[in-house]
Amino acid sequence: MKRLLLVAFLCLGSFAQARTRASLADTVPPAVSQCAVSRIDSLETKSAAWQKIVARLPRFSGYVQTGYQYADNSSSFFLRRVRLSIAGDIVPKLDYRIQIEFCKPQLVDAYVQYRPFGQLNVKVGQYKVPFSIENTDYSPTRLEFTEYPLVLQRLMGLSDVCGLSATGRDLGAMIYGGFFARDGYSIVNYDLGLFNGEGINTRDKNKSKDFVARLTLKPVRGLAVSGSWYRGEYGASYLKRERYAAGACYDRGPVVVRGEWMGGITGMSDPVRNMKSDGWYLMAGWRVRPDLMPAARFERFTLDCDRRSATRQSNVTVGLSWTPVKYLLCQLDYTYEDYASGLGPDRNVVTLMFTGMF
Description:
Helices cover about 20% and strands about 55% of the residues. By secondary structure, the protein is of the alpha+beta class. It folds into two domains: about 1-50; about 60-355, Porin (Beta Barrel), CATH 2.40.160. It is globular and about 90 Å long.
């Protein structure tokens, strides 16, 4: 905001200088007018230089998520995320971003991206793996609920079946872009990337690299249909890690409807085998007002498909999101967790979370 105000002030100053130059030419003697015009030219040059400097200054933003959770067997205040983001432009079409998590101190994002064309862009560093709609397109401050769906947490690095805890991110390089531009969006979009496959801030533990591909079609504004595929090996033992996802989302105006199915094969070392997992979620929300939205989500995740009846969890969540002021998001969720007989008793969970942004 401060940066925008400074740029606006400089632009107004330049406009005033131009008006002053025209006035001086008509009202003062030629010699004096020429001197004043020279002074104005000098000021305009300095103003342009300052505008270039301001354009290269880093932009700071961030948010804090904290709240209270009550369940049948627990009750606790929590601090979920404390993020600081620093972003800026190095030169035109070349920019960077750094994001730090303070709740559990770690570097979350650190990348440089070059965007020469809409059809071909390059990103290198640590960032979100382009897998699924929710992981790629919905940040924690945009999500309609206090937490991501269970299937995404267990199959894409938030609390992965293979033991990684990477908030859906990894170290690597990718190309991405879109074709057939229409009114500010592209109809066909793609992402192709190579990653270590070991999670954030971690060097690769084997020589292979994980490959991810994502294709998204946007036939009309607000509608996205997406498919993702991830294939790699993790750990020094080259254990298999394969993930696939398909889903659709409509998010425009007062309506948001989103659903995805995800599956995966995870190499296990004890005992040695490839375990199949799968799950899905379906959510819908209605923006009653720009600042108020009720939503509901049903989800199901099966840890081991060979023991489906014993490792399945189903959740039903109803929630309310309210933004009383521009930079404050208040969310209240109630979730009923239905566990298979081998996983423990069912639970009722109520979560109240506040997100403060700057």
